[in-house]
Amino acid sequence: MAKNKQKKAEKAAKKNAKKAQEAAAASVKKAQKAATASAKKTQATVTATAKKAQGAATASAKKTQAAATAGAKKAQGAATASAKKARGAAAASAKKTQAAATAGAKKIQDAAADGARRTQRVAADGATRTRRPAADGATRTRRPAAATTASRAPAAARSAPAPRAAATRRTRAAAAPPKTRAELYELAKQRDLPGRSRMGRDELARALGEA
Question: At 163, is the secondary structure helix, strand, or coil?
């Protein structure tokens, strides 16, 4: 009886031990399964977070690159516009300087030409003034000589017939005093002689054939 009870107790103990072992094994499997699921979930979360961070970083990098490209283009456009403006200003300044230099040169040239014309006029007037007294003196000298010759002529010659009187008048006309510059200038004006205003009396006489 005691042996049967002992065997029965041993059998029950083995059964309980086996049952406890199976329960422990099941609990371990369950815990392992839960840990695996948790690890997978954690890994998925980490992966998703990493992907999200990588996407945000890529988007930020693209945005920064686009902003940098736009800034570079804007700076290049501003530099090009500034260079064009500087070239335009330099060209305008060069044209203005050239125009001023041309105007100055023309003004100097005109002033020199006016000065030359004034000098030429002064010289011509001086020559005319110098020739007038000489011509007037020669006229005064010839007139008394002609008068003296006429007074010294014989009385018979003065009372000669009409043909001789006509010859005498022609001789007196041939011995008429030379024209003054004013008279020659009026004659040159009537004949439209070019350059008459710059000529002296002798030059006018030669040009008009009155020398």
Answer: helix
